[in-house]
Amino acid sequence: MKYISGACESGFLKSITIAGALIALPMSSSAAGVTMDDINNDAKTTGDVVSHGIGNQGQRYSPLAKINDKTIKSLAPAYTFSFGGEKMRGQEAQPLVHNGVIYTTASYNRVFAINAETGMQIWAYEHRLPEGILPCCDVINRGGALYDNLFIFTTLDALIVALDTSNGKVVWKQSLGDFKAGHSATSAPIIVDGKAITGVAGGEFGIVGMVRAFDAKTGKLIWERPTIEGHVGTLNGKPNGMTGTLNATWPGDLWKVGGGAPWNNGTYDLETDTIMWGVGNPAPWNSHMRPGDNLYGISTIALDPATGKIKWHFQYTPNEAWDYDGTNHTIAFNKGKQKLAAHADRNGFFYVLDRTNGKLVNAFPFVEGHSWATSIDLKTGRPIEAGKRPGNPADSADGKKGAVVTVSPSFLGGTNWYGPTYSPDTGLFYVASNEMGMDLWNEPVTYKKGAAYMGAGFSIKPLFDDYIGAMRAIDPMTGKRVWEVKNKAPLWAGAMSTGGNLVFYGTPEGYFKAVNAKTGEEVWQYNTGSGIVGSPITWEQGGEQFIAVPSGWGAAVPLWGGEVAKQIEGINQGASLVVFKLY
Amino acid sequence: MRGLKIKRLLSIVVLGLCFFSIQTFADNNAKITSGILKFAAYDNFPPYSYQAENGKAEGIDVDIARALAAELGLKANIRLVFADESLGDDLRVYVWKGHHVTGPPSDVMLHVPYDENLIKQEDKVNFIAPYSEEQVVVAADPKQLGNNPQITAFFSNKIGVERVTMADGYLLGAFRGQIRNSVVHFHSIVEAVQAMKDEDLTAVMGTRTEIEAALGDAKENYQIGLMTMPGIAKASWDLGLAVKATNKDLTKSITASMNKLILDGTIKKIFNKHGASYHIPAAIINYPQE
Asked: Could you give the dihedral angle defined by the CA atoms of residues A421, A427, A432 and A434, in that order, rounded to the nearest 10 degrees?
C-alpha cells in the first residue's frame, strides 16, 4: 500500500530473524549437512526426511512399521508446536527432519526450526512480503528442501531463498520473476545433483512458465527451461535450444504470453536420471482463442537434470478449456521390470506412463462424473472429448452470456496440488479425490482493471449430497478402486503410506486419520483443531517412530462459494504442527 | 442536441449542488472524521494511475481523486493497488471487505466501470459518479496503411494489443480467426504503442486514453478512431467510482462533487493535461429526464 501522504514503508526484500537459539541443537553442535546420498536414499532411510515427497520420486512412503495397524491405538500427540501470531492461514507445508531438528515453512512465508523431540523452537525466519502483493490463493507455502547446511524454499514474491539451518539467516536468494507482473512461488524446490530446482506460479497473468536450476550452495543460475513452445532455454547463461517447435501447436504470437506455469513441485527419478514436472494452463483462458494443442500446457515434461533439456513429454488435456491446471505430481514406480510413472490429473483421469519415453501405458477415470471426456485413447494418448467444451465467445456477438456447459470435474479438479502416495507393499496408489462439477459459460463482457474483456463465468457444485472428498486406493495397472473412504468436505492434503500397512491423511474437518492400507478400514483418528491442508511425514528418533502433520485451514477451497461452502462452514483457523508417537 | 445534453447535465449538477450545500460531507460521516478520504487506484497503469519516479502516485485518476477530495474539504490518500483477475475480486478486496494481506478496504475505488449489469451483480458496492467514457479505438499508421483503413486491413497487417483485453479477444475471434495470426501481444498499451512507433506494427487497438497518452507528441502522425468492428461485444463504457453499499452519505456527496467537476471543466483539463482527449460519460448524456 503506497500512500502518497504518509510514510511509504519500503519493506521489500527485507527479512528478519526472530529470537535466536532458545536451546542448543539436540544432537550435536557440529551437525553434518545433508548430502546428495541422504537425498537420493531418502525414501529408504528412516532417521530423517530431507526431501519433499519423502524421497525425490514423491512416493510419500516410509518403510517404518513400529506404528502399524495393530499398535496405532496407542498413537497420541507428543507435542503441538504453534506457528503463532495472527498469521493463522492455510498450512500446506510438508515438514522435513534432519539430525533431530524439524524444518518447516508456514503461512506468510515463515520458516521454523523445531527440536524434534521436545517441540521447542530453535529459530524462526519471517520473510517480509512486499507492500502491494496480493497472492491468488492464500498466503500458503508447501515446504522446502534441505541440502548441506541450507534450508531452501520459495516465496510469494517469487524468490528462492536459502537459509542457514543453524540459525535461520539468509545465505543466498534469487529472483524467479517480478511479483508485480504476477510471478509468485509456493512450491518446495527439489535438490538434484547439487542443484535446487523450482518452478514458478502466475500463469493467469500471462507469464510464461519456467523451470529453473540453481547451484544449491551458491544460488547461481545453471539452467532455465521455458515450458511453452517457441521460447529458448539457457544453460550457464547461453542459449540451450527452443522448447518445442515454433508455432507447431500455437497460433500467431500467443505463445509469447502463453502461461504454462509449473507452480507445483516436480519429482526426480534417480533410476532414469529424469526430472518430471507438471505444467499448468495455457493462456488466455478461452481455448477458442488459441486453436492447437498448446504445448506444453497441461503436460508432464521430462527434463535432463544436467542441462534442462526436454527428454519427453505427455500432454493430459490438449487445447485446455476447463481450467484443469494439471501440475499434479508424476510419481515413479516399478512393476516388475517396467519403469513406470503415475499421474492423477485434475482432469479426473489417472495415467500410467512408461517413464523411459513418456508413452502411455494405462489411463482410467478415478472420479465419478468425469464428463469432459469419455475416455483416453491408449494408442494416441489423447482424450475422447464429450462435446463439453465451453462455446466460442466470438459466437456471442450480441453481448449476452454464452450457453452453459455443465461438466465434471470442476476446475478445482478430481484432485489438486497435494501428493498422492504409493505403497510398494500393496502396489496401490492412494489418491485424495474430490467429486465436484461446474457450470461454465462465456461472459462476453466482464471487466478487468477497469476495462471490458471477454471472460467466463462459473459456479461449482458437489456431485453428491453426502460427500465431496474420497480417499481412494487405486490399482494403477487395472484401474480398480480397491477401497475408498468418503469425506464430507473436499480433501486438500497430502497422503503418506507406511510399512505398518497404514495410509495417513488429514481432512478439512481437522481429523488426522490412519486407514488400513489393504482394506480401507479407518483404524485411528485425532482432531487437530483446525482443517488439515498439509502433508505428513514420519521418522525414527531414539528408537521411537514419530509422525508430524501441519494443521491450519485455508488455501484455495474457502475462496470458492456456492454449494461447496456449505460443506466447510464452521471450520476454524489454526496454525500448528502436531507431532505424534506411541504411548 | 449538444445544448440539450448540457442542459440535462446542468440540472443534475444543480440538484447535486443543492444537496451539497446543505450537507457537508465531513461532519456527516463518522468514518471521515480524520479529514482524509482513502482512494484505491490501479498501480502501473499510465496515464490513469502509476507511481512516478519520485515515489508519488500520479495520473488522471489520481488528479481526479485529489480534485474530488478538495471539493469535499478532505485530503486524498491514494494507494496504488494490484489489478486482480477480475473486477469482482478488486471490489471485494479494495472496496467492501478487505484482505488479510492488503488490509482493510479504501473508501473509494477509482476507475470502476459504470455498467448496468455490474450494478445488478455487485450488490455490496455502489457504482457512482461516472466521470468519463472509455472507448476501444484503433490507432493506425497512415504511412503503412494509407488513410481510413478498415478492420479487414489486419488480415495481413500486424496489429498490437494488450493481452486479455476486449481488443485482444475480439481480434483473435473476429472473421473466424482470419486476423488471429496478425495480432501481436504486449503486456501493456505503452509497449504496443512503442512497437508501432518503431514500425514493427501498423496499428494498435485498445483503450483510447491509454493509446493517446502513450503516443504523446507523435499523436498527430497517426489516425485514431472508432473503426467499424462487426461483432464486438463492447466498444465503449463509462468509468466511475465504487464505494461500499452501506456508505450512503459518501455516495451522495461524491456524486454531487463529481458532477460539479465535470461541468466546470476540471475533469476535461485533467485528461488533457495527461495527453488524452476527454469524452463525457454516456450515463450523463443519456440521463433520463424526470
From this structure: 150
